[in-house]
């Protein structure tokens, strides 16, 4: 049974999702973001509880540093994902039937990435100006 050329073109476009660079696939972006956020929440919960339960001040300070490093890592991860979204197409594993190619993140997705990145940079800048700069 033969398929029409239009169906063959759509199937080829659908299969081309896995030939795209790994960090340009929406599933990878979503998996990295979800994993980073869930891991950060788990680490923050455990570290905060250990810091409260521990009787020594040094353990509490170490857990506070661990919480800070975790938040810094998640912030960097989210900023990198926003930068990827803003600098090129992020492909979805579904077809855009008007063009016959893979769908990509649209204007709303890019605007959301811009707003998130701006908020993160603003908060980090404020914290650096308000709390870190006077100490250093």
Question: What is the secondary structure topology, with strand pairs?
Answer:
Layout: H1 5-15, H2 26-53, H3 57-87, E1 91-96, E2 101-104, H4 107-135
Antiparallel strand pairs: 1-2
Helix pairs in contact: 2-3, 3-4
Transmembrane segments: 29-50, 62-91, 111-129
Keywords: Membrane, Transmembrane, Transmembrane helix
Description:
With 136 residues, the protein is mainly alpha-helical. Helices cover 73% and strands 7% of the residues. It contains 4 helices and 2 strands. The chain has helices at 5-15, 26-53, 57-87, 107-135; strands spanning 91-96, 101-104. The protein has a two-stranded antiparallel sheet.
Brief digest:
The chain has helices spanning 5-15, 26-53, 57-87, 107-135; strands spanning 91-96, 101-104. The protein has 136 residues and is mainly α. It has one domain.
In whole angstroms, the N-to-C terminal distance is: 73 Å
SS strand fraction: 5-15%
- Overall geometry comes to elongated
Helix and strand string, N-terminal first? HHHEEH
What structural class should be given to the helix and strand makeup?
A: mainly alpha
Strand order of the largest sheet: 1-2
Question: Taking all residues together, what is the mean pLDDT?
Answer: 86
Number of helices: 4
Oligomer category: single chain
- The radius of gyration over CA amounts to 21 Å
Which stretches are low in confidence, meaning pLDDT under 50 for 5 or more residues running?
A: none
Binned, the helix content reads: over 70%
Number of domains: 1
Number of strands: 2
